[in-house]
């Protein structure tokens, strides 16, 4: 709808290590979708959340009141954000090597500053980079993309105008652009015949997004090394 | 009061420094991110910390630099939360008083333990710790008080056991605490320094830098008289302390490692400026560039 090819993603723009107080932080733009993410920890968290054999991951997704098409009154804590928070927690529990930090807690905060479609995918990409910045052991960098179907053809990286239609959309997240899937979310109904093509397209796009994230992360880590370390 | 509003800099300060020729010491191929392959021949290498095996490849799990020790391949994270090593000097805050031990927050993954047995109580080095001492624990160290200690032991789950069984360590009273990322602290033999500007500094390995008028051991003699007395500090010393604190923050912002040499260099080079100017972007970036250049030059000369 905005002049892109069906398999073309929007421009990705990132900035890492912006938040000095957090262990890792990231700002990412997918076109007009802008997400800010901060990772705190691992630290000795609340006793109620403590697990004896691995670390617990607490994630909070929130969107600013001015992020969507209509002004929202509750920036966080509503049903949709809570659902997304839980989804992110589950996804990153399988990405982070939680066994290496028993009895600790990792906090992930994600704020959508401007939501122009594919918010969940942008959040996953932002969190991946922030975790890499924080030096937390992971299986790899997770990358995600939202993929929809129009007239039987898959289109990637939906904007909010494209999301307002009642078209099926799949959000897929993979590790290191490989076959390992950590999160799938489907909204609206998808015809079974389209499933394979959508998943294939999403997977290959995830690999493309991963390439972008990997370059950024490596550059940043290099810049982070202390002078005369 | 006036405010100066400025947008975020186009190039972040530490990027500016790293892009300059100052960073030829790092090899691009040796920096990996999670999921990057370190080696594709696991039969020839052993995998060390920060790696795992995926489909016949040794793959990194953290973002950092690859280290090779004979046949052992490991990845050392560049930026990470403090994980203690035995012998490190740490500065931390007491968060909990428990039976026979204090819990101390040293910016590590878990709170560290300071057992009652490993503190030096006033009066006599080798006296027995009895029930009376246990009752007086919160009198000696309260919640929220800062201490300086040495790491004695790292337990298998990452908890640190610390001790203050020396005159150098113990409660910290007057000073400025600055928290920096722990990867910027350069390990050295001495972490207690008395600077020639009439004040002292403790560079904790956990990223806590303590700027103080005098080290604990030098004013220990007067302590016997009155323990909770605060001394008056002259204005010159206070100014020097604030300047050193500003220097530490400047080195932190431009990711220059913090040790005695870099600090004194920074202090000397900051003399032409006022202290408040050190927080301005223009001054600080220029200063940081000069400091980095000078330090690199010194290192090259030594080689």
UniProtKB/TrEMBL annotation, chain A:
CDD domains registered for this protein in UniProt: RNase_PH_RRP41
Location (main, coarse): cytoplasm
Compartments where located: Cytoplasm; Nucleus, Nucleolus; Nucleus, Nucleoplasm
This protein's record includes keyword RNA-binding: yes
Keywords: Cytoplasm, Exosome, RNA-binding, rRNA processing
Domain spans labelled Exoribonuclease phosphorolytic: 8-137, 141-204
GO molecular function: RNA binding
GO BP: any one term: U4 snRNA 3'-end processing
InterPro entries per UniProt: ExoRNase_PH_dom1, ExoRNase_PH_dom2, ExoRNase_PH_dom2_sf, PNPase/RNase_PH_dom_sf, Ribosomal_Su5_D2-typ_SF, RNase_PH, RNase_PH_CS
GO cellular component, one term: cytoplasmic exosome (RNase complex)
PANTHER family (UniProt xref): EXOSOME COMPLEX COMPONENT, EXOSOME COMPLEX COMPONENT RRP41
Subunit structure: Component of the RNA exosome complex.
Function: Non-catalytic component of the RNA exosome complex which has 3'->5' exoribonuclease activity and participates in a multitude of cellular RNA processing and degradation events.
Family to which this protein belongs: Belongs to the RNase PH family.
Entry protein name: Putative exosome complex component RRP41
UniProtKB/TrEMBL annotation, chain B:
One MF annotation (Gene Ontology) recorded for this entry: RNA binding
Keyword Ligase included in the entry's annotation: no
Xref: Gene3D superfamilies: 2.40.50.100, Nucleic acid-binding proteins
RRP4 S1 domain residues: 81-153
A cellular-component GO term for this protein: cytoplasmic exosome (RNase complex)
Every K Homology domain range: 175-213
CDD domains on file: KH-I_Rrp4_eukar, S1_Rrp4
Gene Ontology BP annotations: CUT catabolic process; exonucleolytic trimming to generate mature 3'-end of 5.8S rRNA from tricistronic rRNA transcript (SSU-rRNA, 5.8S rRNA, LSU-rRNA); nuclear polyadenylation-dependent rRNA catabolic process; poly(A)-dependent snoRNA 3'-end processing; TRAMP-dependent tRNA surveillance pathway; U4 snRNA 3'-end processing
Compartmental location: Nucleus
Pfam families named among the record's database cross-references: ECR1_N, KH_6, S1_RRP4
Domain of life: Eukaryota
Keyword GTP-binding: no
Start and end residues of each Exosome complex component N-terminal domain: 31-67
SUPFAM superfamilies, sorted: Eukaryotic type KH-domain (KH-domain type I), Nucleic acid-binding proteins, Ribosomal L27 protein-like
Keywords: Exosome, Nucleus, RNA-binding, rRNA processing
Family: Belongs to the RRP4 family.
Designated name of the protein: Ribosomal RNA-processing protein 4
Organism of derivation: Caenorhabditis angaria
